[in-house]
Amino acid sequence: MVVAVKAIACTPPRQLELPFSRLQVPDIRTLGEYVLCADEKTSIQARIRCHPSLAASSGHAVRVEHEYDRGGSLAYLAAWDVHRARLFGRLEPTTGIAPFGRLVSQFMSVEPYRSAERVFLVVDNGSSHRGERAVKRMAALYPKLVLVHLPVHASWLDQIEIYFSIVQRKVLTPADSLSLVELGRRILDFQARYEESAVPFEWKFTRRDLGKLLRRIAEHESLPMAA
User: Fold this and answer.
1) Where are the alpha helices (DSSP H) in the chain?
2) pLDDT value at residue 17
3) Is residue 33 part of a domain?
4) Has residue 45 been placed in a domain?
5) How confident is the model at residue 9 (pLDDT cuts 50, 70, 90)?
6) Calpha distance 156→151 (Å, rounded)
7) What is the number of structural domains in the chain?
8) pTM
9) Within a domain: residue 148?
10) Residue 66's CATH number
11) Is there a domain that residue 127 lies in?
């Protein structure tokens, strides 16, 4: 059971009512310290429909042509300041150590992160920033940057995934583009617009809430199958 595996991988402190967000985002209020989280949204395809999509109208849902030409794909790398709701993003042909390094440089080269006492960067265990090598590589480039890895199978605790889910719903669904360039422009335009009104995410889901969810799932799985 996937939920149970994640629960085991991410066992929180003893305080049952401590929100899961506190596991990933330390309550840092010290002047000069910042917390960001980052990840990559891979293989975003530009699907160029053979006929234009039709907008929703009275009595009709959106109509999308099922045939399309492939216009290429891109990767969207983004970082999110969890306390200040600031976004940094870039488009790359693919993911990897070098593209991820360019994302880190994007925010570490500007204030207030450039002169910060410490910058904590929360990431999952993707190949672009996995393991002790990544920690040492980042520390060599940015001595004040502290790379923090989430537990395995716990990338869902990375708050940038919440933003990516918003992008998926608001920008990438349905998958309908005029070109790869248009798709990239749409993503970055949305990023700029979203940041204008963004506020920090406030998670309230606790260990006790997770326990209730697991019990409901277990009860459902124990029900006899219908004949």
Assistant:
1) 2-9, 21-24, 97-108, 131-141, 160-170, 180-197, 207-221
2) 52
3) yes
4) yes
5) very low
6) 10
7) 1
8) 0.79
9) yes
10) 3.30.420.10
11) yes
